[in-house]
Design goal:
Layout: E1 4-14, E2 20-31, E3 36-40, H1 47-55, E4 62-67, E5 70-71, E6 79-82, H2 94-104, H3 109-122, H4 138-151, E7 156-160, H5 168-185, E8 188-193, H6 196-202, E9 205-209, E10 216-220, E11 231-235
Parallel strand pairs: 3-8, 3-9, 6-7, 7-8
Antiparallel strand pairs: 1-2, 1-4, 4-5, 9-10, 10-11
Helix pairs in contact: 2-3, 2-4, 3-4
């Protein structure tokens, strides 16, 4: 569970003058089950576009995205998404924000609250379950967003620069918490960042998207929390 295969993925957009803006050009890579992969690149290189395609929120011009043997052709309950912004409902308290997705799936109130409280404890915010988003710091809101995504029990968790707007101290703390959560849940995670330091600290492997859209680099890194030997390859 959580094996992702991307083959010959292409995405482009039509400008007002009718010309095509190529964002992704024949991307090919795999993400293994329980792997933590960071996608690194400068602004405008297609990181978020790629993540939205994997999530099934947008449709690619060509190519395929396959999760556990099934092609992704739209929003998929196996895929969780943590956005750059917190995307919390201001009129719902913390526990109800986390339980929202389960409510939409028709899960009973007792069961969804039990699950929400479990993941609230996982992000160390149980004491704030009746608080509202306006009463929380930015770091706390993002932890609630992570808990809400995990409550849906996805096999693949996508994270689009979730710590980019936070101060350095809070960001470092949440990076460590995320690794702890990943160690406990063993979800497959794809994490978008433009920070080399963040990618090296978090990832099993790093995928570097280049501005040319022609190739990308896969790097296997040996970090303190990983046991994978270093390697690197270019792909056309």
């Amino acid at each position: 569970m959580g094996n992702l295969e991307i083959r010959d993925l292409n995405q482009s957009f039509t400008r007002d003058d009718g010309t095509q803006l190529v964002v992704l050009d024949h991307l090919n890579f795999d993400v293994r089950d329980k792997e933590f992969v960071c996608i690194l690149g400068s602004s405008g290189c297609g990181k978020t576009t790629l993540l939205r395609l994997i999530a099934g929120l947008d449709e690619a011009r060509a190519g395929s995205i396959v999760l556990d043997g099934e092609e992704i052709q739209g929003p998929n309950p196996k895929v969780g998404f943590v956005f750059q912004e917190y995307s919390l409902f201001p009129w719902r308290n913390v526990i109800d924000n986390i339980a929202f997705g389960l409510e939409m799936k028709g899960i009973t109130k007792e069961e969804r609250y039990r699950s929400a409280e479990h993941y609230l404890g996982l992000v160390n915010l149980s004491q704030f379950k009746t608080s509202y988003p306006s009463e929380l710091s930015g770091g706390m809101r993002q932890r609630i967003a992570v808990a809400r995504a995990l409550a849906l029990e996805p096999v693949l968790l996508l994270m689009d620069e979730p710590f980019g707007a936070l101060d350095a101290q809070t960001r470092n703390m949440l990076q460590k918490e995320l690794l702890d959560i990943w160690d406990k849940t063993k979800k497959t995670i794809i994490f978008i960042t433009h920070s080399v330091d963040e990618a090296v600290f978090l990832a099993d492997r790093i995928i570097v998207l280049t501005p040319t859209k022609q190739c990308f680099l896969l790097i296997g890194l040996l970090c303190s929390h990983h046991d994978q030997a270093a390697s690197a390859r270019f792909f056309p």
